[in-house]
Write a structure and sequence with these properties.
The chain starts with 15 loop residues before the first helix and ends in a 9-residue tail after the last helix. The protein has helices at about 15-20, 30, 70-75, 75-80, 85-90, 115, 125-130, 135-140, 155-160, 375-385; strands at about 45, 50-55, 65-70, 90-95, 100-105, 105-110, 150-155, 170, 175-180, 185, 205-210, 230-240, 260-265, 285-290, 300-310, 315-320, 330-335, 340-360, 360-370. Helix content is about 15%, strand content about 30%. The radius of gyration is 20 Å and the shape is globular. Strands 3, 7, 14, 15, 16, 17, 18 and 19 form an eight-stranded mixed beta sheet that branches. Strands 8-9-10-13-12-11 form a six-stranded antiparallel barrel.
């Protein structure tokens, strides 16, 4: 049984043996002697003065069921990116609550030549190639759910307000987000921008916090109160989207499908720390987890977990069951913290949607999350802190 099957707050373990017991099934070798990769160096981004842009038309329609197609060339796209291309993709737009927007160009620090180069993409394993792709093609209309539905509804005041489930929030355009600071929410870029223009709902974007009815005091409820939690909406002060997502007429890529929302005022709930996405081999149980507001279960917070199937330089390929509305969920794993000597939950990506991938003449379908590479982590961290000094400590 996975630890996150039931809500439990993260707490220090008194020994590696206890860690092992809590995280079964894991190999005893990995539990006794967990792999301890060197912490990644976070590159420095040098931001230019923001340039004003014309106001958005807000003409796009929100797209919750986001699906793309990819082949071997786009699977390896991150490997061939040049320094100038990466700097161009890491530039970002800022949308303000009054409808104005700016573009901020960035440079990669000249003194960190080795840090900006992307790591080689992890090739699809032979095991991954042999998994029943034919069976999945027969269920093409049932995409995003693989076999028996493995999602769990999170109910009850204690569960909904307990970490990590309490870090999941609703986005007014119909998506999900995750709290990553006292004022910031990460979500999918396609929830606010379709690659050409901002969606209509981004003009007055809001973030929704679940409030269980029984937690309300001195509030008169209807005669037949709903058992589902209420939602407290908070306006967004500004939205940031990487230019790698804003590609104009070209085909939209999942590689930069993330956005950061800054709230008008801070919340008081715990948030989840971010981390550069490690290899699946360095995740506890090689598993990822995320909670979201799937559209087929209205009003419910839905949790799921599954193993990582494969990964590229920019994406995590998996078969976690999900439906529209889960886009923007914070994908997290248990990452070994050398300093604390324990496994820590950290957001390592954002759930994007579904992708048909053509490799070696086979069509395989996956649910896909955007990986936080060192450069993407540096960009998002800069958005949160406004400087690079604090990012090196995250």
């Amino acid at each position: 049984m996975a630890l996150d099957h039931t809500p439990m707050s993260s707490r220090p373990c008194c020994s590696l043996l206890l860690v092992c017991l809590l995280l079964l099934p894991l190999s005893w070798v990995s539990c006794v002697l967990p792999h301890q990769p060197a912490p990644p160096h976070i590159p420095s981004l040098v931001a230019h003065t923001p340039l004003p842009l014309v106001r958005s038309r807000f003409s796009a329609q929100a797209q919750l069921d986001f699906t793309t197609h990819c082949n071997a060339s786009c699977f390896h796209r991150g490997e061939q990116a040049r320094r100038e291309e990466l700097a161009e993709q890491l530039a970002f737009e800022t949308l303000y609550s009054n409808g104005s927007r700016t573009l901020t160009a960035v440079d990669l620090d000249e003194d960190e030549e080795a840090d900006w180069k992307p790591e080689p993409a992890v090739p699809f394993s032979a095991t991954g190639r042999r998994r029943g792709s034919a069976g999945r093609r027969r269920r093409r209309q049932k995409r995003q759910i693989y076999g028996a539905d493995g999602r769990f509804n999170i109910r009850g005041d204690h569960f909904l307000l307990d970490y990590p489930f309490s870090t999941a929030v609703r986005i007014s355009t119909g998506c999900t987000g995750v709290l990553v600071s006292q004022r910031h929410v990460l979500t999918a870029a396609h929830c606010v921008h379709d690659g050409k223009d901002y969606v209509k709902g981004a003009r007055k974007l809001r973030v929704g916090f679940l409030i269980p009815p029984s937690s309300l005091v001195n509030v008169t409820l209807p005669s037949a109160p709903s058992k589902k939690p209420l939602v407290r909406w908070v306006r967004v002060k500004r939205t940031r989207v990487p230019k790698g997502w804003i590609q104009g007429p070209q085909e939209v890529s999942m590689d930069y499908d993330y956005a950061l929302l800054e709230l008008r005022w801070p919340h008081r709930r715990p948030f989840m720390r971010m981390a550069v996405a490690p290899s699946a081999q360095d995740l506890a149980g090689k598993r990822i987890h995320f909670s979201g507001f799937d559209s087929d279960r209205p009003g419910e917070l839905v949790y799921r977990f599954c193993p990582v199937e494969d990964e590229s330089n920019d994406l995590i390929y998996q078969h976690c069951d999900a439906r529209p509305g889960a886009s923007g969920s914070g994908v997290y794993g248990r990452v070994w913290d050398n300093g604390l000597e324990r496994w820590e939950r950290k957001v390592i990506g954002i759930f994007s949607g579904h992708q048909w991938l053509e490799i070696d003449g086979e069509n395989r379908d996956y649910n896909v999350a955007v990986r936080f590479t060192p450069l993407k982590f540096a960009q998002i961290c800069y958005w949160v802190h406004g400087n690079q000094v604090d990012c090196s400590r995250d």
